[in-house]
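Re: weekly structure request thread

Next one in the queue (182 aa):
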Amino acid sequence: MDMIQEGTLKPVIDKELSLEEAAEGLRMMRPRGHGQDRGDAVSETTTLPTAAEIEEKLLKGPFHQWLGLKVLSVGDGTIELKATWRPEMVVNAERGYMHGGILATLVDLTADWALVSKTGRGVPTVDLRVDYHRAGMQGDLIAKGKVVKFGSTLSVAEAEILSEDGKLLASGRGVYMTASPK
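Done, posted below.
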């Protein structure tokens, strides 16, 4: 598209394009940087970030701080986190179990941050599925995430949330937007 007066845009071509033609045009327009010579939208990081580096990025979010997150380990396409139990996580005071939203949050952010070894940053969630296996009771949680498929635009990662004694509480899978930010 060419810029014209007063900041408006004018199409260069005044014809409808097929989906394939439009996609090819976008691929040709995309700048090619390091790691993008095969059409990858996000270059994979060449050096694995440390747990401390990821934790520093992760804890920039106030909600992540509230969850008391600690990065226990980072691998190529994997991450292990610990979330510190808080009384505010409880939804049923009589029975003492935590809100399912806390478990869903941990599934989402753990799967998301498993992608950091590939992207170097957190990425937006496109879709998320969570399965609940048992109630989360008082105690810290361990969250393990791994990349299932890393793609140039969309990627899939999954996570398991475990109690302190290793019981599976929730598991899930997410789709994440891994295209380069503009």
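The first strand starts at residue 2 and ends at 3. Confidence is low (pLDDT under 50) at residues 1-15, 21-43.
Next request, please.
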